[in-house]
Amino acid sequence: MSAALDTSGLSVGWPGHAPVLTGLDLRLAPGERIGLVGPNGAGKSTLFATLAGLIPPLAGQISVMGDPLPPATISARIGVLLQHSEDQLFCPTLAEDVRFGPQNQGLRGDALDARVTCALAQCDLSHLADRPVHHLSGGEKRRAAIAGLLAMQPEILLLDEPSAALDLRSRRALMGLLARMPQAMVIASHDLDMLLDLCPRILLVDAGRVQADGPAQDVLSDAALMQRHGQEVPASLRATGPVSPVAIGQRG
Amino acid sequence: MAEAAPRLPDCPRTRLLVALILAFAFASVRQITSLPLLAAFALAALVASGQPLAVVARLRAPAMLALAIALALALFSGSDTLWQAGPLHLRSDGVAAGALVALRLLAIVTLTLVLLGSLPPHKLAEALRSLWLPAILSDLVMLTLRYIDEMRARLARAEAARRLRGGGAGWRALPERAAVFATALIHGQHRADRVWAAMRLRHYGAARPATPPFGLHDLLWIGAALALAAALVWLDRAT
To answer: Fewest CB atoms within 10 A around its CB: which of B30, B73, B75, B173?
Structure first.
């Protein structure tokens, strides 16, 4: 089976600047969830911008579902939640914002309405459809941005700091939503407890390279590795000691 | 407000077209004798709005501008002196030119406020797009209107932060204020970049909804506006 996302020898960086991440060989299976961890400036957002087609890779190849992706090409198969997700909400009302993507894909009439209704329902936002987007709470805005992505039916989701600045209830609601979604995902976050819950696999990037790639439990509980790269072992692992693989499976 | 103004067209595109047709007709008036007619049109539009007082309240700034223009033309333009007080000369042809410019301006602004002032920004942007304005320009209008309040709020927060950290007041603080303004502009540009990226990621511009044809009601409104405009121009030229 083709990988959902496959990169080989990928180097990323902003055009005209030095690469921030080099030699990335990443294979994301369909439906797989990977947590992307690293200090600020490690290149997580730049990697997402490259995979999304906003900037060209400095070197290397990207394939989506087995098809090579030409440099700086925005693919309908990839949905991206930006770090500042409120910037993704630019239409007057929530329903109009969710409609924006599929409408640009050429969907019209009942099919478009059904797509919007379904995306709003998936994100538990149906009751807010007509609300101006700037009247939504932080958690609702985050889910609204995800609804906008789901309405385009992507096969891969790249989520940049999805739980940042959310209160506990909103964070829990977001995690429930992400756990239910069947798409392959890469989640970049400093919320390591959330990654432990959602992602069986962790990729740790720092100093321009991948420093670790393995099961979440192994990578995140390695105190020396985490400390070396400016990270901390998540609170849940510190409190209870290493978690068994069975327990990890039950979390997801 | 749209519900309170049943005597206006419902469709934003029709409103925009009617406003454009009449505004061009008003702007083409050249004779001072046509001004009562122009004033009558403006008054009729005010009444049709269903909220004349609200519209009049929004006319304060344009009225001040019109008055300033009229005074400047009356005092500094033309040659036939009507009245003199020291270096000030009130000139008859300046008064006529001032009245013409000021009343045309007020009539056009009144009409625009009545027809377009009650439309939500996105409806106005959609109407502009449906009249073959390039999508990028209509979206620019919509996004400018959408974010202008946020920019203003950001500027106010930055200004408050400056004052809280001992920033001065008055003209001496001008360099500090300029720095605050420049920073707000740079933040605004970064945000604009992010919004643009978000729009591209959702395939902005890949497909546009088709514009529905005008209905009979809309065609009647446009026809009436054309007839009024033609009558106004004909009367103006005939006198």
So the answer is: B30
Beta-carbon contacts of A136 under 8 Å, excluding residues fewer than 6 positions away, are A89, A94, A128, A144
Predicted confidence at residue B1, as pLDDT, reads 41
Rounded CA-CA distance A32/A186 in Å is 8
| Structural contact between residues A155 and A183, judged by C-beta atoms closer than 8 angstroms | yes
Residue bearing the bigger pLDDT, A44 or B127: A44
Give the pTM.
0.73
Residues 6 or more apart whose CB falls under 8 angstroms from that of A98 comprise: A116, A119, A120, A144, A147, A148, A151
Size of interface A-B (CB pairs under 8 A): 57
pLDDT in tens, A107-119: 989 999 999 999 9
Q: Look at residue B87 and tell me whether its pLDDT is greater than 50.
A: yes
Report the side by side order of strands in the sheet with A201-206: A78-81, A156-160, A184-188, A33-37, A201-206, A209-215
What phi, psi does A160 have (nearest 5°)? -100, 110
What is the rounded distance in angstroms from the CA atom of residue A78 to the CA atom of residue A93? 24
Contact B198 A54 (CB under 8 A): no
CB atoms within 10 A of CB A231: 21
SS (H, E, C) chain B: CCCCCCCCCCCHHHHHHHHHHHHHHHHCCCCHHHHHHHHHHHHHHHHHHCCHHHHHHHCHHHHHHHHHHHHHHHHHCCCCEEEEECCEEEEHHHHHHHHHHHHHHHHHHHHHHHHHCCCCHHHHHHHHHHCCCCHHHHHHHHHHHHHHHHHHHHHHHHHHHHHHCCCCCCHHHHHHHHHHHHHHHHHHHHHHHHHHHHHHHCCCCCCCCCCCCCCHHHHHHHHHHHHHHHHHHHHHHHC
Distance from CA of A178 to the nearest CA of B (A): 20
Q: What is this model's ipTM?
A: 0.71
When comparing pLDDT for B17 and B206, which is higher? B17
pLDDT one-digit tens code per residue, A29-70: 999 999 999 999 999 999 999 999 989 999 999 999 999 999
